[in-house]
Amino acid sequence: MPSYALLRRRRSGSRATADHATADRTADHTAGAGPRRRLRGLAYLALGLPVGLLALVVLGALTAPVLMACARPADISSWADAARRAALLTFGILLTVGVAPLAAAPLAALERHRLRVLASAPTEPTAPEPRPHAVRFRARYTTARAWREVAAGYLVAVAGPGLVLLAATWAVLCPIWLAAPLVVARSSGGPVALGIGHARSVPDALPYCAAGLAAGVLGIVVLITLVRAQAALSRTLVEPRPDPLATRLVEVTRSRSRLADGFAAERRRIERDLHDGAQQQLLGLTLQLGLARMDLPADSAAGQAVARAHDQAKTLMADLRELIRGIHPQVLTDRGLGAALYELAEFCPLPVAADIDLPHRPPQAVETAAYFAAAEALANALRHSAADNIRLTARVRHDRLTVDVEDDGRGGARLADGTGLTGLADRVAVVDGTIRVSSPPGGPTLVRVTIPCPPHPQEDDR
């Protein structure tokens, strides 16, 4: 018991030491975070001057006709003056609406860079999805984000230089007012300019000293509050907002992809279990029945029964191999899509001309989707087309895998007919692929499956 108590005391002591060390590190980090935060705030405030002046020059030039048209309305003395003002106002509005969304994009990018100065661990923005120039140009006028960036540009144009001017005024006036009594006492007796007003004597300078003391304390609070308010408003305007519908669509797509991957993994597991378990046992049973059949007279009742069982076992073996091939062919895992498509064409009851040109192995998900799409298309051709010949083609061009199944049957196939093409389209859509069917009445029928395929082989767990 004493040794156990001593051990507990030692453990408690080590735990307390660790807690004190953690608390010391946290305190050091917290103590260092304050100066860094203030330095980042000063950097954000200082950068507001060049960014704000740039925004003021660009957006001010666009808005100048509107301001000129609205200035001094009392000077309008005739209908001609009113018409000129109206024309100038219309031109200014059109100029602002037409050019401001385009000019606000780089200004918003600069403001995003300035906002990242405030973050202790800034993260780089995600690269935008590449879109055609026409789509991006149209988005500058039709999306709420573009007009929020315009509002952010005007905010930076006003608040950036304004806050710097306010901080500079505060930094100059506060020391002057605090030292006002001393400056007046050392003067020759004449009025002393104190920035705002004059003081002739020390009693006249005391209110300025009190005002400088109050401004020194309150000015910091007001300035920090204004800088934080501008940063929060700018962040709300320039940072992209997640689209709930797009987010939901991404979640659904990822969920569907996970389900498809899980389904494919389960198919491979079932195929492996059947291949390594039931098929091997059935193969051993078939061999034993074959040996027993050779040992028994062929015309005996036992020999005939064993022969029938042997034939049934061989038929069952062939059916099981076909079932395993339908679940997930081993050749697809071992040798890839090209060999699997050639085997598919070889086992097809109709003549199939296979032309496969795959410079590298596609990703596993693409291989699986393409193989079963080709298998389903061949099965549809066998069941519904009454074709005599089928052509199977697979190519990789421009980072896209294209699998064509063409037959010379009667045609008339459609995706909406429920002949397996709908399920084929769903399977291909999981890997962002598409399916197109060309099947005029009288044929021929062409089923084309197109799936994005990376240019280099990926390392997969095959």
From TrEMBL:
Record GO cellular component, one term: membrane
Membrane-spanning intervals of the chain: 42-67, 87-110, 154-185, 205-227
GO molecular function: ATP binding; phosphorelay sensor kinase activity; protein dimerization activity
SMART domains according to UniProt: HATPase_c (SM00387)
Top-rank lineage group of the source organism: Bacteria
Stretches assigned to coiled coil: none
InterPro entries hit by this protein: HATPase_C_sf, HATPase_dom, Put_sensor_dom, Sensor_HK_TwoCompSys, Sig_transdc_His_kin_sub3_dim/P
Region (Disordered): 10-33, 439-462
Protein name: histidine kinase
Organism classification: Bacteria, Bacillati, Actinomycetota, Actinomycetes, Kitasatosporales
